[in-house]
Amino acid sequence: MELDQKLIDQIIIFQRDEITEHHIYRRLAAAIKSPENKKVLQRIVEDELRHYQKWQRYSQQDVTPYRWRAWWYYWISRVFGITFGIKLLERAEKSAEANYGHFQGQIPDLEAIIADENKHEAALIAMVDEERLQYVGSIVLGLNDALVELTGGLAGLTLALQNTQLIALSGLIMGIAAALSMGASEYLSTKAEKMGRKPLRSSIYTSAAYVVTVIALILPYLLIENHFICLACTLVVAVLIIALFNYYISVARDEPFRRPFMEMAGVSLGVAAFSFALGYLIRMFLGVEV
Fold this sequence. Notes:
2 domains; 11 helices; elongated
């Protein structure tokens, strides 16, 4: 079959994508502990190699994988969970499928390759039963409460105290106490639900999410002297945390990003604005100067 050079160049790109994904899935299959998940990943490893070999018949060339991409997706999966990593990789494969459409009719095996790619996603969705996704509700609880309560509390304290060290100390005490309280509440709530989740583990996820958020929000007050700049930095950090967390959930659980992000950001910033005004009024009426 005679192919023009432009088509061959594009086939080589497809070929490198397939061999790169073959290496990613192979490394993940070697690292994963679940026997069932390992079997599914191994099947996908074989599929990706078969796709590579099909493209090779047209290009008549051997190509090497994108090493940096293989490294990147492997470690993304190791750090943020295999579900997030492979779903992110599948999103990249969807863009490749869109490119395949330009060559339909020119390459006989194209439809079979696309059908295999679609099977991958269905298999992956049913494949992973990851602990961190089972407890995502506990993480959301800790994260959301910390964002709403602490951004509001820090905004009020910023105007009431106007001293970065006092604000940081007050916020830290308030945050740690609230984290322990939230953890205890989540423990009792999960124990009462009897839904299969472990109460202690739910409590730890909630408290950990709360404490990490508290540290991130208070950090500007420990590094910067101007309390108004500190508050602005804290609000920016809060929005970034909300954006990153909602992006993670949108990828790992195939949920929309925009609406949950806007809701969480709106609530957190709204409470912060209200608390800032409240701090001003309390300071004005009580006549307290720090």
